[in-house]
Amino acid sequence: RTVVVTGASGGIGRRLIESLSRTFNVIATMNRGELPNELSNHPHINSVRLDFAQPDWCDTLANALPETGLFGIVHGAWPSLPKGGLMHVASELIQQQLAYGTTHLIDLARLLASRVGDDGGRLIAIGSVAGRQKPTVNMAAYSLGKSVLEDTVRLLAPELAGKQITSNALCPNFVPVGMNGQADERRKKLEVAAIPMGRACQPDDILSAVEWLLSDSAGFVSGQIIGINGAQL
């Protein structure tokens, strides 16, 4: 069975495709980043250069997929983390954030529904506690995009259920990789101080949840927004 991971060159994405390749054939999409040699040469990982800003991105991905046997899509790609409130962020950046949480995710769901087998499938979107749980004014466009991603996941769930496809979102708090990889020690300490379990979320925390949602054990779990937050309220 085949699983697509978008945003595969990021810190979380690399960890996902490395682990999922033990069980699935993985289609790893990326825009600007590169995979290390041990992953790019892996027999169960195929990489695809994909730019969500291009109008033909969905056709590019479709051409890289098998006609049948697509089991899951893990949508981890995200364009950026623009700083500032909605009154100050450029409109095109706001639209870009919204697209990743709505139209791009919907197109991925349609692609999955057209290629899924009789055993159903899984749509998993990587959200953030900065969405509905803890929206942040100084990165308001990002919070807005992640918020609508949660709504999109929930609204897709009943439509995809007829094909036995589940639709869920995972919402981690601060993960010190990817866009947060350059955070200074002060910010890391502040983030950890707000987490009751006393540590930052790690890629393996997200990976464990993804693996569970891809398993048969989660076949009746759909339309859920699952926090990976160490009890942060």
Structure characterization notes:
With 233 residues, the chain is of the alpha/beta class. The chain has helices at residues 11-20, 37-40, 57-63, 91-101, 103-115, 140-160, 185-193, 203-214, and strands spanning 2-6, 25-30, 45-49, 70-75, 121-126, 165-172, 224-228. It has a 7-stranded parallel β-sheet with strand order 3-2-1-4-5-6-7, with helices on both faces. Strand 1 (2-6), helix 1 and strand 2 (25-30) form a beta-alpha-beta unit. Helix 5 (103-115) runs parallel beside helix 6 (140-160).
Outline:
With 233 residues, the chain is an alpha/beta fold. It has helices at residues 11-20, 37-40, 57-63, 91-101, 103-115, 140-160, 185-193, 203-214; strands at residues 2-6, 25-30, 45-49, 70-75, 121-126, 165-172, 224-228.
- What's the tally of helices? 8
Main-sheet strand order equals 3-2-1-4-5-6-7
Terminus-to-terminus distance: 37 Å
Number of strands: 7
- The average pLDDT is 92
Helix content: 25-40%
Percent of residues in β-strands: 15-25%
Ranges with pLDDT <50 over ≥5 residues? none
Major sheet summary line: 7 strands, parallel
The gyration radius over C-alpha positions equals: 17 Å
Shape: globular
Structural class: alpha/beta
Write the element-wise H/E pattern from the N-terminal end onward: EHEHEHEHHEHEHHE
Q: Which key features would you list for this structure?
A:
seven-stranded parallel sheet, 233 residues, single chain, 8 helices, alpha/beta
SSE blueprint and pairings:
Blueprint: E1 2-6, H1 11-20, E2 25-30, H2 37-40, E3 45-49, H3 57-63, E4 70-75, H4 91-101, H5 103-115, E5 121-126, H6 140-160, E6 165-172, H7 185-193, H8 203-214, E7 224-228
Parallel strand pairs: 1-2, 1-4, 2-3, 4-5, 5-6, 6-7
Helix pairs in contact: 1-8, 4-5, 4-6, 5-6
